[in-house]
């Protein structure tokens, strides 16, 4: 009942904001700058085949590849830093420093290096998603209970046992928190890469429509990108509930 009330409250708020947007944009009267939500919905329906079957797959491919690289490298580096103080001191400051560099400033450089191929967009996505995955996994591995670790050691547990039976389960909540952030940020990374140089994709289509002063067509792929981010977030949430169902039993 409480969840239903929360959903109704959030839905009502979204509806109110859309109504305000509709009235404000209609009063402004310049749809090429600020289209109404209804105009965006109509344009999204008109462009559904082009966006869904031509440009959406290109964006999804960038997101999937970028997330896969970030997960593999990020988890690997987090584990390495957890077992090695030297690796932590060497890589942790670099990971933090990487977030102080504006990605939008590096994206054109990646286009110069990799051209308009998929890899220039993948690198941007990796740079954006790598940080939350790595840091959350590292902090999670460090959060295991010290008393339990000492107890397991006195019972003859090996380092492998400590890692698999204590560190990893303790880190899972933090890992999923990082993944929730990463999957939504991956959509932003893919869109930024496509905006600066691509031949297909939702971000590319939105930028192309800007040159035609078609405001509704600029917003339509953005709405679709938002929907992709929400679906990815919900997917991670479902997987989290399945993997961490033991938390409800504790």
From TrEMBL:
<feature type="transmembrane region" description="Helical">
    <location>
        <begin position="91"/>
        <end position="116"/>
    </location>
</feature>
<comment type="similarity">
    <text>Belongs to the binding-protein-dependent transport system permease family.</text>
</comment>
<feature type="transmembrane region" description="Helical">
    <location>
        <begin position="216"/>
        <end position="239"/>
    </location>
</feature>
<feature type="transmembrane region" description="Helical">
    <location>
        <begin position="58"/>
        <end position="79"/>
    </location>
</feature>
<feature type="transmembrane region" description="Helical">
    <location>
        <begin position="122"/>
        <end position="141"/>
    </location>
</feature>
<feature type="domain" description="ABC transmembrane type-1">
    <location>
        <begin position="56"/>
        <end position="243"/>
    </location>
</feature>
<dbReference type="InterPro" id="IPR035906">
    <property type="entry name" value="MetI-like_sf"/>
</dbReference>
<keyword id="KW-0472">Membrane</keyword>
<keyword id="KW-0813">Transport</keyword>
<feature type="transmembrane region" description="Helical">
    <location>
        <begin position="175"/>
        <end position="196"/>
    </location>
</feature>
<dbReference type="Pfam" id="PF00528">
    <property type="entry name" value="BPD_transp_1"/>
</dbReference>
<feature type="transmembrane region" description="Helical">
    <location>
        <begin position="7"/>
        <end position="28"/>
    </location>
</feature>
<keyword id="KW-1133">Transmembrane helix</keyword>
<dbReference type="InterPro" id="IPR000515">
    <property type="entry name" value="MetI-like"/>
</dbReference>
<keyword id="KW-1003">Cell membrane</keyword>
<dbReference type="GO" id="GO:0005886">
    <property type="term" value="C:plasma membrane"/>
</dbReference>
<keyword id="KW-0812">Transmembrane</keyword>
<dbReference type="GO" id="GO:0055085">
    <property type="term" value="P:transmembrane transport"/>
</dbReference>
<protein>
    <submittedName>
        <fullName>ABC transporter permease</fullName>
    </submittedName>
</protein>
């Amino acid at each position: 009942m409480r969840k239903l009330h929360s959903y109704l409250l959030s839905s009502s708020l979204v509806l109110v904001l859309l109504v305000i947007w509709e009235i404000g944009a209609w009063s402004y009267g310049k749809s090429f700058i600020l289209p109404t939500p209804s105009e965006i919905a109509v344009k999204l329906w008109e462009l559904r085949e082009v966006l869904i079957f031509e440009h959406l797959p290109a964006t999804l491919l960038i997101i999937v590849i970028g997330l896969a690289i970030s997960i593999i490298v990020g988890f690997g580096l987090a584990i390495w830093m957890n077992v090695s103080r030297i690796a932590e001191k060497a890589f942790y400051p670099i990971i933090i420093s990487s977030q102080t560099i504006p990605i939008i400033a590096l994206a054109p450089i990646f286009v110069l290096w990799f051209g308009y191929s998929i890899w220039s967009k993948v690198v941007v996505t990796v740079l954006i998603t790598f940080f939350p995955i790595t840091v959350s996994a590292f902090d999670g591995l460090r959060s295991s209970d010290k008393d339990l670790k000492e107890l397991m050691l006195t019972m003859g547990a090996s380092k492998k046992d400590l890692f698999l039976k204590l560190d990893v389960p303790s880190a899972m909540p933090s890992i999923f928190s990082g993944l929730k952030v990463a999957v939504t940020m991956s959509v932003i990374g893919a869109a930024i890469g496509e905006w600066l140089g691509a031949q297909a994709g939702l971000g590319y289509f939105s930028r192309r429509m800007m040159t035609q002063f078609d405001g509704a067509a600029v917003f339509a792929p953005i709405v679709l990108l938002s929907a992709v981010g929400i679906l990815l977030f919900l997917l991670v949430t479902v997987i989290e509930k399945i993997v961490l169902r033991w938390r409800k039993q504790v």
